[in-house]
Structure formats: structure tokens, C-alpha cells
Design a protein that fits this description.
mainly alpha; DUF2304 domain-containing protein
Length: 64
């Protein structure tokens, strides 16, 4: 659950920065948010969550 909240915050900040500095129109940012919402509730949503958790475990295991 922590990973999901962190991903939501990270992606939200990313869309905000695109809106603020790359002049992303507000309606396109709203479409991005709606797409993410509907994608999460689709049948592929759990697979995406599993992939993000696997990626987070991989990054956490890197020895930099």
C-alpha cells in the first residue's frame, strides 16, 4: 500500500510539473488523471501494481 501511495504522489507531482513548466494544458492533465483512474480499475490494474512493486523491490535492492 505504501508503494501505491508513493507512486500516486510521484506521478501527481510529475503531472503538476508538466502543467506548470511544460505548459501542459489543464484539460490534458485531467485526461491523464482520468486515464490512470480507469486503468487502475480495469482488469490490468493489479498487474500494473504487481509490476510497480517488483520494480520498487529491484530498485531497493540495488547497491549504489
Amino acid at each position: 500500500m505504501t508503494i501505491a501511495v508513493s507512486a500516486v504522489i510521484l506521478l501527481g507531482v510529475f503531472v503538476y510539473l508538466l502543467w506548470r513548466y511544460a505548459r501542459l494544458p489543464l484539460w490534458q492533465a485531467a485526461i491523464c488523471a482520468a486515464f490512470g483512474y480507469f486503468l487502475a480499475s480495469s482488469s490490468i490494474g493489479p498487474d500494473i501494481g504487481d509490476g510497480l512493486r517488483a520494480l520498487a523491490r529491484f530498485v531497493a535492492g540495488l547497491d549504489l
